[in-house]
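Example record for the data management plan.
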Amino acid sequence: MTHAYDGPLALFLIGLRVHKPWHVRTVRAAGAPMGRMIAELERNRVAAARGEAEDLGYLGSRTTLGLSGVTMIQWWRSTEQIYAYANAVQREHRPAWLAFYRAAADDPDAVTLWHETYDLADQGVESLYAGPRPFGLADLAGVVPARRRGETARERLGGRVGR
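Corresponding structural encoding:
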C-alpha cells in the first residue's frame, strides 16, 4: 500500500531535548504549550473539513519518543501555511514561543528546542506500507494499492494516484 494523498506537501519536524529536567520552569515553558497548539490545529482541521473554519493547512501529526528526546512529525499543505500559523498572534504558537524565549533567557542550557521544515511541493513523496496498520501520511490520508502510483519506489516518487 501507499498513501492516498495528492497535493502539495510540507513536512515539519519539531523536537525537544531536556538537558536539565530539574529546571522545571524552563522545561514546562518549552514543552507544555505543544499540547494546546496541537489541540488548536486538530480542532481547526476538523472544522475546516466541515467548511466551518479557514483551513490552516495542517494535515496531522505524530509524536515519537526516543533516547534523544521527543520529536513531533507534522504534515502540512505548504510551508507558507506553517509560517502563517507560527506568526499569527491570535493563535497558540506565537505567545508560547515568546514565553519560551523569556524562560530560556534565564536558563539557556536546560533544553534544546529544534525544528526542520521540508518543502516537498515540487519534490514528490514516495511511501510504502506493509502490515495491518498504516503509519505516517497513510494514516492521515488513507491508502491505495502501491501499483496505482507505480511499480517501483522511483515510479511512485511524485506519482499521482492512478486507476
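Summary line stored alongside the record: The CA atoms of residues 63 and 72 lie 4 Å apart.
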